[in-house]
Amino acid sequence: MWDYTDKVMELFYNPKNQGLLEDDREPGIAVVFGEVGSIACGDALRLHLKIEVNSDKILDSRFQTFGCTSAIASSSALTELIKGLTLDEALKVTNKEIADFLGGLPEAKMHCSVMGQEALEAAIYKYRGIPLAVHEEDEGAL
Ligand code: FES
Ligand code: FES
Questions:
Q1: Per CATH, the architecture of 6-141 is what?
Q2: Ligand 2 mean position, distance from CA 111 (Å)
Q3: 3-state DSSP call for residue 34?
């Protein structure tokens, strides 16, 4: 049995922002989603973002995951942390910040908090029209 904090368990039982965001085509608003893993397969996560185009701000987000307790709690935490941030600010949210928000995560479960960030990155890069593969090569070159 993993040693989860009360906050992790609270968000596992009552996750915030779980589900999807409909694209209701409001003017000046974009809705995108990013995905990691394979939804058909198992450990996977999809993160939807509602973006105000002019300000580049995240107005809202929702996640869906088949991942474990930590993935659910981390994704829920991420949706709360990124609300109101610009896309550039959201890209800087670290998995340590996610873990801190949760009062800590077991070391072996830190990777679950990374899934949310990867889905966030995938959504933002899709929105910006940047292929993820190019981004990964860029990172390798740094
Ligand atoms: Fe993907 Fe079984 S469905 S490994
Ligand atoms: Fe796979 Fe947490 S999402 S172990």
A1: Alpha-Beta Complex (3.90)
A2: 7
A3: strand
